[in-house]
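Example record

The entry below shows one chain as it appears in the dataset: sequence first, then structure tokens.
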Amino acid sequence: MSLKRVAGRDAPRRGGRDDAPWERGSSGRAGTGGARRFVGPFIIALAAVAVLVALDYWMNAGRIYRGVEVGDVALGGKTPEEAREIVLRRAEGALERVELRGGPEGEISFDARRMGIDYKVRETVQAAYAVGREGNLLERLGERLRAAYGTVQIEPRVDYRPSVARQRIEEVASRLDRPPRQAEVNVYGSEVDVVGSREGYRVDVEATMRSVGEAVEDMSGEARLVGRVLEPEYTTAEAERAAERARRALDGELVLTYEGRRWTVSPAAIGDSLDITARDGEFRVGVDRDRLRENLSGVYAAINQEPVEAGYEISGEQITVTPSRTGRAIQDEKLLGAIEEGIFEGRREYRIPVAVDRPELTTAEAERLKPTDLLATYQTNYLTYDDSPGRVENLEIASEAVDGTLLAPGEVFSFNELAAPLDYHDTKVIINGRVDTAEGGGLCQVSSTLYMAANLAGLDVIERHPHYAELPYIRPGFDATVWFGALDMKFKNTSPGYILIREWVDRSTGTVNAAIYGRPSGIEVDMRSEKVSETVDEEGNPVTTWITYQTVRKNGEVVFDGVLHKDVYKYLKPAAPDAPYDERPVN
């Protein structure tokens, strides 16, 4: 191998020397010169850097490199002791106090530690001094270059507890936060009072916290108290406008007149009648009509007068007319509307609008409709059936309930409506087809007597029920039983005027009497009944069937002649000791 490394070296050397001796010398001189040209400037540059580094080290020995800042405080070229003094002076306020500026109270100051802020000045200066002095050579050089040709920002070293700061801010918010006060308009008697509005305020805790954080970072100690002013919906200006309108309404008495009479309404009464409401940011001043009506109660009492209907007084057989009276009533809506419209425009006098309220039955009409003639009478005799004291008293009680009744044209008479509310004796009645004793015995004789009088007077009977059995005090077919709550006897006044019903008991003759008075109508009525069949029931007891006929003449001309109704009557048995009440009693 050595022989080959020597042969290999010698061969070209000989060839080169023989063929081109000038090439070797020329080539060797060119390569050496280029290397020298590269190494020289490099060495010079290194030397320059070394000199600069040395110079920089010498110039900044024991000092913070230029371009280093803490917050917005430049510390470059300062010794650590000098830097500490500068930071202390710069951060003196932030170290001791934190100022919250803005808000409704202006400036609020807190001890920094109460805000959870504790600045570490020594640690902060040490961090500034360490710039360009820690790390490897390239890192140190890089930091020095950035400082020399720019700025290196050092975050202040601080112990900051945001939860403590939040607690302080929330305490401020609890003191400053308040809703806006709405303006008010109040009326006291005749005086109008305005309560002014006031702005409210609400602290923005989150935004204020961010501002405190920024103050901590730049060591300014100055933060903004961020909040929002809350405007009232109802302002003092709006309330004053409403108060002015109310004062116009209270500017003097109101005068009300009617037919030469005069009433005054005081400003205090007007004030009590005003209605002030707040809606949609505005005050509306109007009149509370109910309260105004109450304040005008004396006027209403003096003018309003209920109409009086004409009536009838009965004295024996005499009927006299009690006079009617026309009423009057203030036209309420028209009067109150006029006051509500004019009172705010300065109008102080009002004429009271009054409407006439006429009675339905005037004196003239009552005279025209007054019962003047006896239309019909009918009587039955209780001596033929039962004249026990209790039954006779029941006859009188029921007759008195009916007696004196006036029935207007078209009005319906109900026997039960008048007789049912009264108390009666227990006497003979028919229950479940048997004779028994119960309360109200005798009422059916009163209703039957009146039923026949109504028929003979030409009135329209609209409800009637027959008894269970034939009774001795009235002809079959002419009777009308009643049972409170179930069976009634009713008729309608179809005459051209009022009718007067009279019914009474004559103990001297043992009769129940009914009479109906009214206006002459030219109607005459005849009644008759006849038995059309007599059979026996399953026990062999007689059962009879009766047909009642009626003939009606008007001014002498027959207008009806025929069957009125058909009734079946059964046998009346003695009462069983435990017999239940029949649904259709007879008495």
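Notes for this example: Residues 1-31, 579-586 have pLDDT under 50 and may be disordered. The longest helix spans residues 21-60.
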